[in-house]
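#struct-help
A.M.: can someone run this one for me? Single chain, 268 residues.
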Amino acid sequence: MTFQKGDFILINYTGKVKETNEVFDTTYEEVSKSEHLHREGELYEPKLVVIGEGWVLKALDDALLDMETEKASTVEIPADKAFGQRDPEKIKRVPLRQLLAREINPIIGARIEYQGKTATVRAIGAGRVLLDFNPPLAGRTLIYEVITQKKLNSSEEKILSLVHRRVPVVEEEKFKVTIENDNLTIDMPEDTFYVEGIQIAKRGIAMDIQKYLPDLTQTQFIETFKTEPKPVTMATPTLTTEPTPEPNPEPTPEIETAEATPTTETEV
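D.P.: on it. Structure tokens below:
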């Protein structure tokens, strides 16, 4: 089964330079580590592509139309259909002191900003630095090894994939999508509340929905802030002290009083 323009598909790929076999891009984390391309915090996972929308190089985009799901394909792209031929006029020497004055410490191979443009440092010597303003892959033939993992068919799958594209740091399954007639509601998980740039991301999601799912005329985002449950305070048990019974007083022994014996007077 081949694809059509406008199809939503997920692809895994590895891009190489044909002349050197150097890997310059990949969706596989293990490959990124083995090729010393791994960047901390970057997600390595299948990439969403809407065919025909220019989300990948045009030559690769066109080649996707003839691919089949879960079948590996190899696409070779010549330089003129990739990043163009190298332009010698875009290679310039600048004084090292000018870079140092801008607090730029050039290192061979590094990408730097100079006069509002990005350049690659090619050489340093005699107080001058050779800067190459050509794209890093200009003049190179590229090889893409591609596997189409899945085609997304349902509106819910497409919406969630567009959300994930804009907010990749939060797992896709944490979002809840509800469609009623032509209205779309997206429940935002708490993980998104403090994501940097989330308001811009929501605006981008709404614009994507309007473009790729035009039947949905309204997009609403729901953010629910829940009150933290109060900790349950365990009542301190009251110690009931029973009154200490007073000791029974011992009976006071009765003192017998001897009756006075009447004195008999003796007559003399």
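A.M.: thanks! The longest strand covers residues 142-152.
D.P.: also worth noting: The longest helix spans residues 198-212.
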